[in-house]
Amino acid sequence: MNPVREHLVTLLTEKFEAPPGSIDDDAALEDLDLDSLARVELVFSLQDHWGVPLDDDHDSTADVTVGQLVDRIRTLLAQSAQQPDKSE
């Protein structure tokens, strides 16, 4: 399992009490019984952990899937790794 997906599954099960058996890449956040406030909190938790700029309006919608969130974070991480260090 990749670290992004592993962290997301841990957050969903431990913090948001989603049943582990219901979490797969096609599971929408709404299917995991996350209300709108929980979805925004999830996005903020992911932003804080990974240091990536997720869009809470787009990335916290009810129909966003676990797989889409994982892909989005991995893409943002790859983009930030390619950017030159501005402190140099």
Automatic annotation (TrEMBL):
SUPFAM superfamilies: ACP-like
Pfam families linked: PP-binding
PROSITE patterns: CARRIER (PS50075)
InterPro entries attached to this UniProt entry: ACP-like_sf, PP-bd_ACP
Residues annotated as domain Carrier: 1-77
Gene3D superfamilies noted in UniProt: ACP-like
Protein name: Phosphopantetheine-binding protein
Lineage of source species: Bacteria, Bacillati, Actinomycetota, Actinomycetes, Kitasatosporales
